[in-house]
Amino acid sequence: MTEHPKTWFLTGASRGFGAQWARAVLESGDRLAATARDAASLKPLVDTYGDQVLPLGFDVSDATAVRHAVAEAEAHFGGLDVLVNNAGHMLVGAVEEATDEQIRSQMDTNYFGALWTTRAVLPGMRARGGGRILQVSSLGGVVAYPALGIYHASKWALEAVSQSLAAEVAPFGIHVTLIEPIVFQTGLTANSPQTSPDDTYAHARKALYGGAAHIVPGDLEASGRALLELADTPEPPLRVLFGVGGLEELREEYARRLDGWEQWDRLSRTAHGSAAS
């Protein structure tokens, strides 16, 4: 899929990864349906790139608004080639600290928002015989740290549904890739709602921030180049890390999981009963 121009639909295009990736897409000569909660925040893109950009303002957690926005973008451009589900926020706090409303909002944006947009583009992509769906997950979509449990839950859910979806839509020429960034200075935490810290869980925050102290943030501009390369790759991966340091952590994580399952295999067989071999 290397033809140009392609037409992209990018959520969360007003800041962080989204703002950088929007510029990368447009500089490449492609067309972009750029979305944000407030369409006015996308005016700089329109001022610079004109008719290459369709600015759309809506909340990704509103399934009806999502369907209308996708339909408007398809009518405007004649179809969509690449969906990037980037909109999201990161709730920092222990599981007990988070309010019911914060938990719901985290899932509504990071998981359901991506799910609604994905479902909305699928009929058009199937009819056109192909497409790319790029889901912005995280290293936190495959590992879990203290004081990020609710955020991790939203990304783990996105990972699961995307893996199933990839197998379901492959026969239609649609590729699904989970992008798993490590650490980039996107302003994600500063622009996200946060819990009220409780000293009871001070140890959890200490463990979270202490473990990240050695990580060197990646380059946002370089991530845009990687995104374009990914969109042009004929056979893209199901998962790809953006940044360095994650692969080593994942090796340790999966080694611990396998070790745990093996250590408790006796109990697993007990649970199975007399039919165990």
Automatic annotation (TrEMBL):
Oxidoreductase recorded as keyword: yes
Entry keyword Oxidoreductase: yes
Superkingdom to which the source organism belongs: Bacteria
InterPro entries for this protein: NAD(P)-bd_dom_sf, SDR_fam, SDR_oxidoreductase
Keywords: Oxidoreductase
Family: Belongs to the short-chain dehydrogenases/reductases (SDR) family.
Protein name as annotated: SDR family NAD(P)-dependent oxidoreductase
